[in-house]
Design goal:
- This protein has one domain.
- It has seven helices and five strands, in the order E-E-H-E-E-E-H-H-H-H-H-H.
- The strands form two sheets. The protein has a three-stranded mixed β-sheet with strand order 3-5-4, with helices on one face. Strands 1-2 form a two-stranded antiparallel sheet.
- Helix 2 crosses helix 4, helix 4 crosses helix 5 and helix 4 crosses helix 7.
- The termini are far apart.
Length: 176
């Protein structure tokens, strides 16, 4: 959906409250594969564990906190931080997922793969929403990065046992 603010047009990102029942249940099921729980926060309350504040998803331990206005890309991104971090960081996780640049690339790549598992979302929507939100990639867009410049992210996910050779998620957490 295009909206206009002042003289600028922008794409409104897909938010949690816009997911239909089937899509939201698919999201919950997807996150359960990884041992993540989801807690919905009332719209007037701050999101616990949110690194960026505002409507961004929060992460404390194995619980992902969301509101209806939380962008789906934020939910998947924080979930992928949980999936991609090592067991030691996961055990003490509160708000700041940490990690290095290569892990962050793995997180972004995996969130795109997981978007394909959600009815009404998919990678095309994830590309659009990541670009609209301001993710920054040297080729200028999430799609260009994913398709042409993400070999390091794919390799990292493969080496850490999170995807198979066909880049399909293996539904397990990073060990170590």
């Amino acid at each position: 959906m295009m909206e206009k603010v002042g003289s600028q047009a922008f794409v409104a990102v897909l938010c949690c409250g816009e997911l239909g029942g089937q899509s939201f249940e698919a999201l919950l099921g997807l996150l359960r594969h990884y041992g993540l729980r989801v807690e919905r926060v009332p719209s007037e309350e701050e999101i616990p564990g949110s690194y960026w504040g505002d409507a961004e998803a929060g992460l404390i331990g194995d619980c992902l906190f969301v509101r209806d206005d939380t962008p789906v890309h934020s939910i998947l991104h924080e979930a992928c931080h949980y999936i991609c971090m090592d067991a030691e960081r996961r055990a003490r996780l509160h708000t700041d997922a940490g990690g290095d640049c290569l892990e962050e690339n793995g997180v972004c790549y995996l969130q795109i793969l997981l978007a394909d598992e959600l009815p009404g979302v998919g990678r095309s929507r994830m590309f659009t929403d990541m670009d609209a939100w301001g993710y920054s990639f040297r080729l200028g867009s999430a799609r260009a990065w994913f398709e042409q410049d993400a070999d390091d992210a794919r390799k990292w996910l493969l080496e850490n046992g999170l995807i198979d050779l066909d880049t399909y998620p293996l539904w397990r957490l990073r060990q170590g």
